[in-house]
Amino acid sequence: MPRNKSYIKLMLTRIISTIIISIIIVALIHYLYLWLSNNLTSPKTKDYITIPRKKYNEIYENINSYEETNPKINTSYNLEKNNQNILDNESMKNELKSYLSNLTQDVTSYSTQEYTVF
Predict the structure, then answer these.
(1) What would the DSSP string read from start to end of 85-96?
(2) Cα separation, 82 vs 76, whole angstroms
(3) What does the alpha-carbon distance between residue 51 and residue 57 come to, in Å, rounded to a whole number?
(4) Dihedral angle at the C-alpha atoms of 37, 42, 46, 49, nearest 10 degrees?
(5) φ and ψ at 79, to 5 degrees?
(6) Rounded to whole angstroms, how far apart are CA atoms 31 and 37?
(7) CB 66 within 8 A of CB 73
(8) What DSSP letter does each residue of 32-101 carry, written as one string?
(9) Residue pLDDT, tens place only, 57-111
(10) Are 67 and 74 in contact (CB under 8 A)?
(11) Angle of helix 71-112 versus helix 50-69 axis, rounded to 10
């Protein structure tokens, strides 16, 4: 019987020591990983102000330089575009007016009909 108690005591100490050693190894690997990632990598930072502003200025300069070199082409294009927009607006207005008049005619024709109740 005394032999069984010593065997159980030995098994418990080995299990507990294995658990403690495993936890220590996992913690060491974790902290080693954190230390390496902090010291060997540079953080990524996105610049949301300066880079878009530079790109916008480049685009704006390109547009201005094009307008300075080709003012006649640009003006005529803008006039044509403006005239086309005016024509499109007028046609849309006419189309809307005709649709509304048809709609009101349909509503008045429905309202004048008599309905039979079953």
Answers:
(1) HHHHHHHHHHHH
(2) 10
(3) 10
(4) 140
(5) -65, -45
(6) 10
(7) no
(8) HHHHHHHHH-------SSHHHHHHHHHHHHHHHHHHHH-HHHHHHHHHHHHHHHHHHHHHHHHHHHHHHH
(9) 898 888 887 766 665 555 555 666 767 777 777 888 888 888 888 887 766 666 5
(10) yes
(11) 100
Q: How far apart are CA 10 and CA 2, in angstroms?
A: 13
What is the reported pTM?
0.37
Locate the domains of the chain by residue range.
Answer: 1-44, 45-86
Coil, strand or helix: which one is 113? coil
- Integer Cα distance of 50 and 57 in angstroms: 11
